[in-house]
Fold:
Amino acid sequence: MTRLGDLERAVMDVLWDVVPGTSDGVTVREVADALDGRELAYTTVMTVLDRLAGKGMVQREREGRAWRYRPAASREAHIAQLMLDALDLGGSRDAALVRFARSVTGTEAEVLRAALGSEAGLTAPGSTGGDAGGGDALTDRVDGPAGRRPAGEAAER
Structure:
């Protein structure tokens, strides 16, 4: 997955925060207006959105003469994909996973246990079979942009 530059990230933050999953998306003007505090030309925002579409980060649909943009995947799916891509950088995936597991807080570890238990069809110790405060996000699967594997699926070795 391509890392995002500062402006690309700001635009994606607008899309993730403003565009609900059922929305038809937003126009370039709406994104530019939401980027208050930045003095950006309309064409700059249009170029960033066009590049994000080329990277598979946003989907766009023609509406009259304008395009409407929406995220191709959720923020959580994007972050999960970044984490998976980091594991693909080389070295031992197992060692990196163990190091990561040892670095999380107790609450984060409980969320991970619940997610892993859910994947295995089990419940986490001490849980009642419900979620661990993460709602349905623990089991949601969203295809990543540009045909990448879903964030919850492991890469082939």
The longest helix spans residues 106-119. Confidence is low (pLDDT under 50) at residues 128-157. The longest strand covers residues 58-63.
